[in-house]
# Entry
Amino acid sequence: MPGATAKEIAKKLGISAASVSVALNGKPGVSDATRQRVLIAAAEMGYSTPRAASDSRQLCFLIYIDPHVGIVQASSYYTFVLQGVERAAKELGCRVLIRYYYANRSFTEQMSDILQDIDGLLVLGTDMTSAQQSELGAMIVNGSLPFPAVVIDNFILSAYADCVGNDNLYGTKAAVSYLIDQGRRTFAYVRANQRVANFEDRENGIRLAIAEHLGSDAAPLMVIPVDISPDRTFQDICSWLEQCPALPEAIVAENDEVAAAAIRALRSRGCAVPDEVAVMGFDDIPICEMVDPAITTVHTHKEQLGSEAVSLLYRRIVAGETAQSIRSHGCIKLALSTRIVVRGSTTSLERR
# Structure
């Protein structure tokens, strides 16, 4: 339902229009759960922020979805990015149209009705595989878009496309280095069957840290293959634990939802976390503090991803640039640093 209003979203969710407005504008006053419900409904219904002035610019926040991957749909991560987009756009006097874009479907079919109405495109690339990076990069650079575009939460290194993302490689490397400093020497990596570019970088970060700190003495990295959906992840980890001859000293997960499932699976087997097995997550979303023990994780600046992308896109718009002209001006690949947030799921082995 393109062009849905805040009142229509409120009616669908059975909450007040005021609560919807608070959630969409990133203001305090509603719970995180309500805010996420509102943002998800806004994306589904094609919500666009009201026009503040006749010359206000409209940005499109395009949520790239691959049904065969499903990471975006299985996680609340993108709702935090969207909060940053909405906040920054409002400060610049821009409106934001929120829309899903499905992989393996025609770009023209999905976007033709809005191409003439928007001034810039923000593409959330969380679900993007390495192969799709090339496809999307070609679409942006060679597709004759009449406006600039910025990819969020992914780096398309093979194309002249502006990108803003997290430093996944060194974020995970730092996390494993921290666990090694705590005395952990054997590691299991919960590896999603759905491989996206960000997960590939995180896996490389794990292997890089082990090679750098433990060298030839390192025990082989155990790999726990899982489906990314929370229920399947739990079942897959439980199955792996039943067949595992010896527990690792630490489990490193590709995101916080997977880390939470790992803690559930370990506790169902009677394994003490972190005394027997430490667990490390990635992203730092609210679920980290909703499990026992709370999850030590790699904090990513989710809202800042959105705000930095809007700032970059706005500068391109004001300069009159398009996705094609950026090639001659030089594209920007902006990587945001990460930090480790220590909670109860990790501890030094010396404390045992």
In short: The longest strand covers residues 58-65.
